[in-house]
Amino acid sequence: xxxxxxxxxxxxxxxxxxxxxxxxxxxxxxxxxxxxxxxxxxxxxxxxxxxxxxxxxxxxxxxxxxxxxxxxxxxxxxxxxxxxxxxxxxxxxxxxxxxxxxxxxxxxxxxxxx
Amino acid sequence: xxxxxxxxxxxxxxxxxxxxxxxxxxxxxxxxxxxxxxxxxxxxxxxxxxxxxxxxxxxxxxxxxxxxxxxxxxxxxxxxxxxxxxxxxxxxxxxxxxxxxxxxxxxxxxxxxxxxx
Lengths: 114, 117
Fold this sequence. Notes:
Strand content of chain A: over 45%
Distance between the termini of chain A: 36 Å
Oligomer: heterodimer
Largest sheet of chain B: 6 strands, mixed
Number of helices of chain B: 0
Helix content of chain A: under 10%
Shape of chain A: globular
Number of strands of chain B: 12
Radius of gyration of chain A: 13 Å
Number of strands of chain A: 11
Radius of gyration of chain B: 14 Å
Strand content of chain B: over 45%
Distance between the termini of chain B: 41 Å
Largest interface: A-B, 28 and 26 residues
Structural class of chain A: mainly beta
Order of helices and strands of chain A: EEEEEEEEEEE
Order of helices and strands of chain B: EEEEEEEEEEEE
């Protein structure tokens, strides 16, 4: 079945460590996105990519980095510079940048900093 | 700046009751898209509906219905004869029509709906 796969589902990190969250899609979608969700909050955009080898900062990009070397993959690195990294991270994709098409989401990765 | 307000943080009803989730938005754009997403306990958000600001017709899909009223800047979502499987967090979202990519998408904080058996 087509969809978005995020891994790992749960991740624990010590302060000062970088971690990378994986996001893979087999929907042949051009655009991919990373969102952060905190308890009782809406989703906030971290980074997005409209095409391979190109990505743009979202509203809360500080302390995060991404790459888009393949159409199917959009990994997110949470760096030690992110001051409050404990959160639920959601990856999404869409057929194009125009949001006339809906977003498809993965099941998320929950990061806890110890 | 645009804003989406879901004033109901949590709603709890008994199965088979009808329930309405409120969504009020603010935008300076004259044309825009509105969305509802469902987030079940598994975590992924599931797209439910997209409505553009040109079309104020109400929409019904099975037990789900949506009431879009531009005059009150509201896009409310009603579940008729609720079921336990409807338990989830529901998000309302807004994006400008022109250049309305996900970088312009604003989510509300969500309403946690609990359907008790």
